[in-house]
């Protein structure tokens, strides 16, 4: 059995077309399903949107988490050479990168808490239903099926075979070897993944004063230790759930 893990943090970028209310609406679909879940939220978001309707989320363990608890925040002043090639710079901010790169750390915390006593854990982006709009029923069924699967290694959605060489600047331009929105696996493999991610990111900040999208870093980690990972083919659609 697997626990779904997700998180929502506000004010990490400036994208006007996605309001907090819209994200919450999408996240509630995920958290209301009859599957074991852990959700990290800021206290004010929990109080405003969830505290008065907990009966709608009987299988969700809410963990209060403020943005300043993200360990990356201690390194903000060191990000002096942060510069990525982005067609949406309002979205791809330092705060956004810090949040994306923290996914593995939230998984680690969920494993340590393990409120549902499962052996596997699966990260699913809080706004996954923004990406999967036209396959709602199939998505819900797929989520339930996912929690009944177990994997020893890091099962991870892959848009492009990560065994291929990256032909762009992996440090500056987004590369879709991994989809980013879904990954999971056993406690042991995910804890190794989290440790490698933290070490790599802190070393990059120390040596390059820079950080980029989590999926780019995952590609570099895959190159270092491919046997840790179990990629499966997927795109930013229903396949990211059905192929898990």
Reported by name, the CATH topology is: Spore Coat Polysaccharide Biosynthesis Protein SpsA, Chain A
Binned, the helix content reads 25-40%
Backbone CA Rg? 17 Å
Morphology: globular
Q: How are strands sequenced across the largest beta sheet?
A: 3-2-1-4-6-5-7
Quote the average pLDDT: 95
List the uncertain runs. none
Order of helices and strands: EHEHEHHEHHEEHHEH
CATH architecture: Alpha-Beta Complex
Portion of residues in beta strands equals 15-25%
Number of continuous helical runs: 9
Domain count: 1
Core attributes:
alpha/beta; Spore Coat Polysaccharide Biosynthesis Protein SpsA, Chain A; seven-stranded mixed sheet; single chain; 15% strand; 244 residues
Précis, in short:
36% of the residues lie in helices and 15% in strands. Helix 4 (103-113) packs antiparallel against helix 7. With 244 residues, the chain is an alpha/beta fold.
What does this structure look like?
With 244 residues, the chain is of the alpha/beta class. It contains nine helices and seven strands; from the N terminus they run βαβαβααβααββααβα. A seven-stranded mixed sheet has the order 3-2-1-4-6-5-7, with helices on both faces. Strand 2, helix 2 (43-49) and strand 3 (60-64) form a beta-alpha-beta unit. Helix 4 (103-113) packs antiparallel against helix 7 (187-208).
Topology:
Layout (H helix, E strand, L loop, with lengths): L1 E7 L11 H12 L5 E5 L1 H7 L10 E5 L29 H7 L2 H11 L6 E5 L3 H4 L4 H11 L7 E5 L23 E5 H22 L5 H11 L4 E5 L5 H4 L2
